[in-house]
């Protein structure tokens, strides 16, 4: 494609030329990223995590190589594939669509585009020698692809935007916890203060025995999605006790990175936090769907979300393995990591915060 060519965001009605798969990178034709963004917004199967800005976030925050590609026919984008290579000494080597995201995989408007993008991913796997290729599917598995054993679940539910109706939709016991937070005098603010978020988040993940993301990662996310994020922070007597980074896409709100510090549990701050996200998003942004994100079965987060009346829906993490390779299990459910988690909890939090960003880049 010459430098003068222009990729159109409009979807074709009839293709006359073969499908081409082209990269989305810093050398792409001007307007290509905008066309990708328009495709995402126009295609119901595409999610917030298919937006092209994730490419630079992943590269800049973690140093991973990205291989974003799109299918083109007759000058129009007919499919997209966000893909990144996670390669670390501790956790191995994999091509994932998409790391640090809940959902991913190719999205296409024609069977030809879908097949071309899948073939492209397989070819890239062979060329790079990467042992694992993974697509993170929300609704259904890729035909003919094996799936990881059920572990990750997503939680999604409609909301009305009317505070009274949405409060009544919360199961009675969980609703009582929200009211407890209100009685404890908790208040909330909505802004873009990712530094406060990181402070609270770091305290929470340290207690869980998990490395913390770098502060820069949260700042990059805020910069990448200026119109599509906010930070909800819960205050007790003026002090932040819980905080979450939310994404907004179409009519959905997605609370993504967040939780409470040590004082949060006794104050019911986490319960109040997610109510405030729901209430604010419905009233202020017109959100009509609350996406509680993914959690692993058998964890406290999984039970917490189910207590809100959300039905867990299994995610389909489909994969291909190079001959002789084994499926990696880089998660806390793996007994191999239980001792590491226990040891991490004992580290002083300042040391954990300093070391965490070097480790977590392999845990997307």
TrEMBL record:
Q: Which residues form the BioF2-like acetyltransferase domain?
A: 174-306
Which Gene3D superfamilies does this entry report, sorted A to Z?
3.40.630.30
Superkingdom per UniProt: Bacteria
PANTHER family reported for this sequence: LIPID II:GLYCINE GLYCYLTRANSFERASE (PTHR36174:SF1)
**Name of protein:** FemAB family PEP-CTERM system-associated protein
- Species source reads Roseococcus pinisoli
